[in-house]
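Appendix B, example 12.
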Amino acid sequence: MNLAQELADAEARVERVKREMASATCAEVGHLWISLGGCNCGCVDGACSVPVNECARCKDCDYGDNLDADKTRARCAELKGQHP
């Protein structure tokens, strides 16, 4: 197979994958998270907030259960000597 044919085959495969991704669920391709704001992180004094996100495609919400929230809760617990 020559390089031109290899390129044509690769481009065709890319187009097929793009079509598959366009109809795939977020579970297959990942959520497109947008910020809804925040919620209390659960610390005793209630002063800390964690981000809450919603998927722009499927409208699923993480309710503050995400990596940034985990970091905030850990930092809060460390600074205040409390457990999240």
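Helices lie at 3-22, 26-29, 67-80. The two ends are 60 Å apart (CA to CA).
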